[in-house]
Amino acid sequence: MLGRVHNTNIPEMTTHPFTFRKPLLALALSAASVLSLPTPSQAASPASFFHVSGFVRLYGFNKNYGAPTKPDQRSSALGEGLNITTDPFLGGFGLGLSVYNANAIETFPAGDKAHETTLMGAKSSLTTVGQAYVQYARDGALIRAGRQIINTPWMGARDSRMIPQTFQGVWASIAPMKGLQLMATRINAFKSRTSDGFTHDNLYYPNGYEDDELYGTTTVFPKKTVLPEASGTSVIGARYHSGPIHGEAWFYDYTDFARSTYLNGGYAFGKAHDAFAPYVDAQFMHQTGGSMFQKYKATLFGKGGAVDSTLWGLRGGVKFSGNNVSLAYNKLEDHANAFGGGSIVSPYGDDTAMYAAVMNIDLLAYGPGDATELAYSRSFLDHQLKLKVAALKFHTTYSGNPHAVYFDATYALSGKLKGLSIRERLAISNGASSSAYRSLVYNRLMLQYRF
């Protein structure tokens, strides 16, 4: 196993407690004053062998709970990511490196329950080499080995925190014909969004396994259980897109945790620029296996056993005059004698493949039941402003009947400030059976500059 990447000695930033928005404005103004300076990629010659890109990200989370037994939580951080890639050499070889860093703006005493730890963990600073790979690409084929970002429907970067989730292993893809892509990967180690190194675990392992700062875990194993290392994951998949038709098929083998088959596809009745363009989509997933859960007596929602989950979904909508209105439905079947009563197993936390899902408000979190989402989205000001609003309703077996509203707006600047954007995401949910989560206002605000 690769050694862990330890944090650099960045001085701890100590501040008095404060809310996030006022310091965000002050930092945004100071950041904007330097954004017009040439970036490394702008200063480099187009013929340069090395290419540099990245981001500077200022992020704030606020969670307000409607329960006296659950204190409100907050966190804020400033960080950056730097990507260095090369031009192809020796007929198609290439190299890539990505270094990520995050620093807490407000620090908390150890164990302070007001600290929201999923943004960057509990430490005051975090530095990691998230990508370091060699690849060979030629004639529509690619093979990449090393630390890397992998994006598939149920295993991906989940880049909605300070740093993305990355993996160590081999990725291969080929495009044998127009519109078709075949993909496969084998990963043996994993770095979460709050970890500084790669370990042989996943988000079902307890925080601290192999000294991994693994925040955002799902507690399923009995306390003090001694667990073996995770044996990684193998994935094969195919995507096809031709005219109005699109589809994909995936098989995941999360070794000892679950085997998963996922299908997704749809048809668009019209073209993107038509005045009226309806579309329909459907998805299906079935999971089995789970020897790890059985052997070590794991339970979720008080239910143990083998993995047996079945998810399906339908979505229909229409695009007209720049608007997009959709109605989506997901159903996660009850399997009373299975792990989690039929719950989805997602070892790396991915959930956005489901049609009815926003900001961790979904059937992965709530367990078996059904979800309905009515959504509206549109781009304004020549696509500088993107807006989405949605309403969701759930009926679940173990989490009550929650409902939620969601707002997502991104404004991207242009001209000399091109690359700078601000994004606001707000979810308000009510009705979950847990007393601590019956009411939750979850706000995420991000200022980002990409270069």
Strand content: over 45%
If you consult CATH, what is the topology?
A: Porin
Task: Give the number of helices.
Answer: 4
The portion of residues assigned to helices is under 10%
Model regions low in confidence, pLDDT < 50 over at least 5 residues:
1-44
Domain tally: 1
Average of the residue pLDDT scores: 90
What is the architecture at the second tier of CATH? Beta Barrel
Strand and helix map with partners:
Blueprint: H1 21-32, H2 40-43, E1 50-65, E2 73-86, E3 93-104, E4 125-138, E5 141-148, E6 166-177, E7 180-191, E8 233-242, E9 245-254, E10 258-268, E11 277-288, H3 291-295, E12 309-320, E13 323-332, H4 363-366, E14 369-380, E15 385-396, E16 400-412, E17 420-432, E18 439-450
Antiparallel strand pairs: 1-2, 1-18, 2-3, 3-4, 4-5, 5-6, 6-7, 7-8, 8-9, 9-10, 10-11, 11-12, 12-13, 13-14, 14-15, 15-16, 16-17, 17-18
Short characterization:
This protein is mainly beta. It is 6% helix and 48% strand. It has an 18-stranded antiparallel beta barrel.
Q: What labels would you give this structure?
A:
transport, 18-stranded antiparallel β-barrel, globular, 4 helices, 451 residues, mainly beta, Porin_dom_sf, Porin, 18 strands, disordered N terminus
